[in-house]
Amino acid sequence: MTGPDKKKLYPNENIKTVCYISNLPKRPNVEIGEYTYYSDNKKSPEKFYDNIEHHYEFLGDKLIIGKFCAIAEGVKFIMNGANHRMDGITTYPFNIFGGGWEKVTPAVEQLPFKGDTVIGNDVWIGQNVTIMPGVKVGDGAIIAANSTVVKNVKAYTIYGGNPAKFIKKRFSDEKIELLLKFKWWNWDEEKILNNLKILTSKDGLDHLIYD
After folding, report:
1. Are residues 69 and 166 in the same domain?
2. Can you list the residues of the chain whose pLDDT is less than 50?
3. Amino acid 210: pLDDT
4. Record keywords: Transferase included (predicted)?
């Protein structure tokens, strides 16, 4: 035994509210790492893509999510397609309504573009969090429920609120540096299985360093 089958949509057939979203049908400009799951008690977790909003292929922005992330229900990823032109007197999108207003359709380069949205590995995103366009969330970070993330989040930190603000570091700077070197999420299945107690214990990092 080397752990659950990472190729199954539902790794535990008895829990149909949780699925490995890397096994959903592929979608352009969305990359999701192995073992990352989405949990939703209100609708099928297979509807995960509904939570990626204003994501238009012609803009080219990507949503990239690493391995072993835990994503709770109601999480929204707002992509660059939601942005309005902001360099004029008004931000109103006249062009989308027709009737002659389409003559002021902006060129793509006139629209605000924040780049790719990137979620690292081993990130826990709480219920009803909103991630704004172009945000980068580092490995091992935690985003508290009901937060709106408008700025980058550093690795192994906890953020919360609207807008989300730094709450605290999960570990000392020295331990964070070591964790980013170990990159446990890249271990093979057997090594992860053999080290589960270390990975889930309070003093697990000390064991990795000194054993």
Report:
1. yes
2. none
3. 53
4. yes
Instruction: Answer whether 188's CB lies under 8 Å from 173's CB.
Output: no
Q: What is the pTM of this model?
A: 0.93
Judgement on whether residues 189 and 127 belong to the same structural domain of the protein? no
For 183, other C-beta atoms within 10 Å of its C-beta total 12
Inter-residue contact 135 to 149 (CB < 8 Å): yes
**Among the listed residues 183, 184, 185, 179, the one whose alpha carbon sits nearest the alpha carbon of residue 205:** 179
Q: How far apart are CA 134 and CA 87, in angstroms?
A: 19
Backbone φ, ψ for residue 79 (5° rounding): -100, 180
Q: C-alpha distances in angstroms, 109 versus 60, 85, 94, 183? A: 12, 10, 17, 37
Q: Quote the pLDDT of residue 3.
A: 85
pLDDT of residue 205: 77
Q: 88 with 143: CB under 8 angstroms?
A: no
> What total number of domains does the chain contain?
2
Shared-domain flag, residues 97 and 197: no
Range of the domain at 150: 18-170
Please state, in angstroms and rounded to a whole number, the distance separating the CA atoms of residues 143 and 36.
15
Catalytic positions are 84
Which tens digit of pLDDT belongs to each residue from 24-81? 999 999 999 999 999 999 889 999 999 999 999 989 999 999 999 999 999 999 999 9
